[in-house]
Specification:
It is a single chain. Strands 2-1-11-10-7-8 form a six-stranded antiparallel beta sheet, with no helix packed on it. Strands 9-6-5-3-4-12 form a six-stranded mixed beta sheet, with no helix packed on it. Strands 14-13-23-22-19-20 form a six-stranded antiparallel beta sheet, with no helix packed on it. A hairpin with a 2-residue loop joins β5 and β6. It has about 230 residues and is mostly beta strands. The protein is globular, with a radius of gyration of 18 Å. The chain has two domains: about 90 residues, Tumour Suppressor Smad4, CATH 2.60.200.20; about 100 residues, Tumour Suppressor Smad4, CATH 2.60.200.20.
């Protein structure tokens, strides 16, 4: 098993894991792990297993692949090592994840949507946030949305914590994501049946408006967009 904890700059984005013995990382959609950012090469690098060991290999990328801050072409990789791809940090582990792997969405298929040049909304002139109407997972009343991708899900895993609707169901580590695009902020559910938008189940991404109501499990938020 290959497992990667992914950060963009200092912000945690997601956890990626797969049973495959080889993972290709890059900007293009056909990669196993997609980092949708123009500074990442189409096929940037790959991590693979050979015998009982794991290796990382740069695939002639433009900006290079770094292992523990050292630029590499090919190297062995072990648990706890950090792979750096431009502003991304990927912490490698080959150990099995025992926490609800069967209940998690197919996160390896989720693109990490990064910043595009804004034509309509300048994030420097507006403040986007989620106000907690009811949140049994946390006491925070307002979560400001500053990152390009902000995840809602299990406490300790997502940027904004939420709680399962009942004791018989389990909330995914990453249940929904809010992404900033040129035209505004989008809400995208990452697992079916978990997210509601203005009272209805959300099955596809939606462009958020001021005072929209978002429900994730037992947690209720109000989306707020204010001029600074």
């Amino acid at each position: 098993m290959i497992k990667l904890m992914i950060k963009y700059e200092s912000s945690f984005i997601k956890e990626f894991q797969t049973e495959k013995d080889s993972v290709v990382i890059g900007r293009k959609s056909e990669n196993d792990l997609v980092l949708d950012n123009p500074t990442v090469s189409g096929k940037h690098c790959k991590i693979y297993k050979a015998g009982d060991s794991y290796f990382i290999e740069d695939l002639n990328s433009t900006n290079g692949t770094f292992l523990n801050s050292k630029k590499i072409l090919k190297s062995g990789i072990k648990d706890g090592d950090t792979v750096t791809i431009v502003k991304y940090s990927l912490i490698f582990s080959s150990s099995k994840n025992t926490a609800e792997s069967n209940n998690s969405p197919k996160e390896e298929e989720i693109k990490i949507l990064e910043k595009t040049q804004s034509k309509y909304i300048d994030p420097k002139t507006v403040k986007a946030s989620l106000e907690a109407i009811e949140n049994p997972a946390d006491s925070v009343l307002e979560y400001e949305i500053k990152a390009v991708s902000t995840y809602i899900g299990k406490q300790g895993k997502a940027n904004i914590p939420a709680k399962s609707a009942n004791i018989f169901s389990s909330l995914p580590e990453l249940a929904a994501v809010i992404t900033f695009r040129s035209e505004g902020y989008y809400l995208n559910p990452l697992k079916e049946g978990i997210v509601k938008y203005n009272g209805d189940e959300l099955k596809d991404k939606v462009l958020l408006k001021n005072e929209d109501i978002i429900v994730v499990g037992a947690t209720r938020f109000k989306f707020c967009l204010k001029k600074i």
